From TrEMBL:
It is a single-pass membrane protein. This is General secretion pathway protein J. It comes from Trinickia caryophylli. It is found in: Membrane. The chain crosses the membrane at residues 25-48. InterPro entries: N_methyl_site, T2SS_protein_J. The keyword Transmembrane helix applies. Its main location: membrane.
Length: 233
């Protein structure tokens, strides 16, 4: 009797084993495979978009830093130009002129060298979205200076930025504050010349322009960059 039971149990166990192997050999169904492929495609797409966004952000950051460095060099050059600005008595008139989208100044060149100090006309101009600095050849006489001021289009120029949206200029005059009108700037110099004629210790307190505010907006969306530069007297 027990032997028969054992044989029956053995037959039942042996009969179950092929069924388990058949189920394990079946693997994933077609639907499960399609779902897995779809999930992998979604993950790949999300990863690609994330990588693409990161690369675009990096490229934008690098381009913005390059523009900022270039504009910083332009500001540094402008500060150097303003530090060497001539006095009004040297040219018998305003040594700087501010206009919409344009700054013109007269500066010394060759200061500290063995050669005689000469004059140079420098222009910062915004035209067609390009901010450029141009400078004349050194001049040594007032007649040549007057002629140079009439032919500024001939100056060789170098672009500081080609994505400038706008440029604004203002001059600080102690009695008036920030002034954007060239007529006011010219009048302050004319009053100085009429009263003193030449720069001296007694003319230090005269209400001459003391600083220049240079503001540019560039890029899209536009970012504003501003620099306030003291004017050497």
């Amino acid at each position: 009797m027990s032997a028969g039971v054992e044989r029956a149990g053995t037959h039942r166990a042996v009969g179950l084993r092929p069924i388990a192997r058949a189920r394990s050999a079946a693997g994933f169904t077609l639907l499960e495979m399609l779902i897995a492929i779809a999930l992998m495609a979604v993950v790949a797409l999300v990863s690609w978009r994330g990588l693409d966004s990161a690369m675009r952000a990096r490229e934008g950051l690098v381009a913005n830093l390059a523009r900022t460095r270039t504009l910083g060099r332009c500001f540094s050059q402008l500060q150097y130009d303003m530090a060497n600005l001539v006095t009004p008595d040297e040219v018998f008139g305003p040594p700087l002129r501010i206009m919409p989208g344009e700054l013109v100044l007269i500066r010394h060149i060759g200061v500290g060298s063995d050669e005689p100090t000469r004059l140079q006309v420098v222009r910062y101009r915004l035209h067609g979205g390009v901010l450029a600095r141009s400078a004349s050849e050194p001049v040594s006489t007032l007649s040549r200076l007057a002629d140079t001021l009439q032919h500024m289009e001939r100056f060789p120029s170098a672009a500081a930025s080609d994505r400038v949206v706008s440029m604004s200029l203002a001059v600080w005059i102690p009695s008036l504050g920030w002034v954007s009108d060239q007529a006011e700037v010219a009048q302050s110099y004319q009053r100085f010349l009429a009263t003193h004629g030449i720069s001296s210790f007694t003319s230090i307190g005269m209400p001459l322009p003391k600083g220049l505010r240079f503001v540019v907006r560039l890029g899209s969306p536009a970012l504003e960059y501003s620099r306030v530069i003291p004017i050497g007297q």
